[in-house]
Amino acid sequence: MNPRDLLDQLLHPYESFTALRTEFGPVSYNERGKFWEVFGYDDVLELASDYETFSSDGSPFAEYPEEMTKGQSVLTTDPPRHRQLRSLVSQAFTPRAIASMAPRIAEITNDLLDQVTRQGKMDVIADFSYPLPVIVIAEMLGVPSEDRARFKHWSDQMVVSEYEDLSRDNVEEYNKRVRTIMRQTLDELYDYFRQVLAERRLRPQHDLVSALLAAQIEGESLFEQGILAFCSLLLVAGNITTTNLIGNALLCFDEHPEVMEQLHARPELIPQAIEEVLRYRPPALLVGRYATRPVEIHGCKISTGESIIGWLASANFDPAQFPDPQRFDIGRAPNRHLGFGHGIHFCLGAPLARLETKIALSILLERFEHIRRERLQPIETIRSVFIMGPRHLPVTFQVRA
Ligand code: HEM
């Protein structure tokens, strides 16, 4: 996909992803990236569900260092290893464990809003939707949330990256440059967490890092590299996506003032509005797999080892699954969007992301009204092929009486 289209995707997701599906779908080979792409709901669902045919243990993106993409974390393993790793960490993410975090999430939300209340305006991203999840995940992991400028830098390097500004004309050169940036980012991240691990080994605390150190898979402790990979995954996957879910939600509500009004009047509808945002403007655009055997999709013969991208964002507009897919409809039922993926790799952090976003939006709408996007400057999108969301979202508001 041409990175120049990213703004269009954010502003006109239905048109952009429908055009993509109509032009290339249902399956096509991307010559430049050397991977296959699938666009329809059923095909993306199949790609995410059939882990025996479509493996996660390797990346479709040739430019990434192998240790990021193979066999290290839940995201990049297949069963049985995936099951073992996921069971180790899923304790921390059960709906009950997550629900117990609600008061703290509300407190952080209120603190962040306190800081902008008097000025009557804020950048939703910088002032609100970025710090909230980063503070939450930092507290879960047990690392100082004051380090969040560094977390942001690392997260950006991993997915959003300045490398998007590099020329893609020379694929070799581009891949080399991306690999160098990734290598440097991983080294910094791992050095950071290695130090945290060393401290927790000496003085365990009630946090996720200490729990991971104590955890065992069939009598064996998690190897250090596995813990480092998981902590880094959480820091990156847990942040940028939730930031963009909150940002994308406000963008949707700004475009549909009647929805904003409805949610002010009936905040109990916020959870279903969030589900529709996950369909209409999903922060995570795609999942990647590779074929473990020769497989045919709609007559296209995919060979063993070839990579396949499943476009979640395109599947979410498939009219065979969603009637009137172009309508942003918070009453949509059923709404089986693929915003959190599907199958064994279904987002581990989904209950946390949903809770954070629900609390963030509920308190925001409870405290402020007439929330309007400032239209002084054109909207800018983050530059990533994986993640969709606004880079900045300046809004004005009034404090509710
Ligand atoms: C997996 C999206 C928030 C941790 C995934 C996948 C998607 C996704 C699409 C599936 C990837 C695949 O199948 O290859 C999102 C979105 C989020 C979000 C849209 C926010 C709106 C979070 C949070 C955390 C998290 C808050 C943790 C704190 C993970 C992990 C996996 C994952 C660990 C890998 C699960 C596995 O492979 O078994 N996420 N995510 N995510 N997500 Fe999220």
TrEMBL record:
Query: Is GTP-binding one of the keywords?
Result: no
Instruction: Work out whether the entry's keyword set contains Acetylation.
Output: no
Tell me where on the tree of life, at the top rank, the source sits.
Answer: Bacteria
Q: Which Gene3D superfamilies match?
A: Cytochrome P450 (1.10.630.10)
Which keywords fit this entry according to its UniProt record? Heme, Iron, Metal-binding, Monooxygenase, Oxidoreductase
The record's section on Pfam families has:
p450
Q: Which PANTHER family match?
A: CYTOCHROME P450 YJIB-RELATED, P450, PUTATIVE (EUROFUNG)-RELATED
The entry assigns this protein to a family as follows:
Belongs to the cytochrome P450 family.
The protein's name is Cytochrome P450 YjiB
Source organism per entry reads Dictyobacter halimunensis
| Gene this protein is translated from | yjiB_5
